[in-house]
Design a protein that fits this description.
heterodimer; A: mainly alpha; about 80% helix; B: alpha+beta; Sulfite Oxidase, Chain A, domain 2; 7-stranded mixed beta sheet; 5-stranded mixed beta sheet; 12 strands; about 15% helix; about 25% strand
Amino acid sequence: MTTAQRINLQLKRVPAWPIYVAGALVPCWYLYLGLTGGLGVDPVKAMEHALGERALQLLIVVLAVTPLRDVTGVSLVRFRRALGLVTFWLVSCHLAVWLVLDVQILSQIWADILKRPYITIGMLAFVLMIPVAITSNNLSIRKLGPKRWKRLHQLTYACAGLGAIHFVMLVKGFQIEPLVYLGIVLALLAMRLPRPVKRAVA
Amino acid sequence: LAKLGAVKTGYGQDLEPNSWADITSYNNFYEFGTGKEDPARNSADMVTDFWTVKVDGLVDAPGDYTLAQLLDGMTIEERIYRFRCVEAWSMVVPWAGFELADLLNKVGVKPEAKYVSFETAVIPGVMEGVSYPVLDWPYREGLRLDEAMHPLTIMATGLYDEPLPNQNGAPLRLVVPWKYGFKSIKSIVRISLVEEMPETSWNLSNAREYGFFSNVNPLVDHPRWSQATERRIGGGLFARRQETLMFNGYEAEVASLYDGMDLAENY
């Protein structure tokens, strides 16, 4: 038995439910920090940014599952649904903080979504995540059939790209960090491109 | 810390200043990092003793001035001003400082001078941010001469009657309360009187988003966000946004500087 197979065997005993519990608690933790001064003097922005960044990081983990299996043989596929749904939860909270605590004013929210490209892109990423999140269950796989379900869930690629671009576009000046995220996302997507089939030379 | 003994003035007596903690822990000073907490965390090693400021260009008495020489004869006043960041947050800061006009009169402005240009220190090894091309260092800012001579425009040396902390631009910074905060350049090492409109860092970085004037104006949006309202720092998670005031509330004092100018075009 290879090391990867041994790891996979061990991972089979690890349940996925703690991911949901931990994920659900993340925004509560930030809310607690925000209410008790733990997020500094501008808790609204700190919370908004932290939730967005955690979501992008988690989305990168989700995208890394397949390349990790291809390269090392270690499979985290069992945990991918939980990771993906927690990502959606964090993005939803990120959006809620922006709507309710930050912008607050309905007319300005609409104006921002329509007029500001980085917000338009962020909203588009969120909207594209909705069908993916709704169909993240076994019933949907059966109803849609594995092929169509898989195609639908490839929307994740677009969400990750748009999320990273959203981050790049919102910073001021030339900043490295968001570009690193975009680079990682693009690298993980590039690993999925069909590779040229090697042919034996006669 | 020695109190500065700033003379009380009538400026901003109706305003409720932000706390020392608010003002000194939430700063944009990209030389020390792009995070709001970075300047407070990373600026302790900047030595501001023996600070000199080069004054050059169209002045009668150019030269390298020590801080003591510049401050000699100046009246340090308390000025409680609104501070509005281009990022749509705001504070109220009790500055201690003197009028820039007094400094300019001291060095003697030649009649050809039309603008004042300023530069921030660049100290590699101490300012970790300057290792990255976030902006084209040194940080540069500028004012039209009439803006620079306006009595509201001050050179700050302190806040809450204490010497300026490094993260707030020690030992000497500009404060122009009717303009977005980035115009109020920190840790100044050079002041030049010039004839042409000087280059400014944010304008060089992104001219579409940051103009030379950058007057606070709720009617002219930043391309990426509205400037109609602002978040007052210090209100906690559930603070309501408040309306942004024309010229940050200093319309009566400064609007005449821009008579006949299209403020949307000259953003």
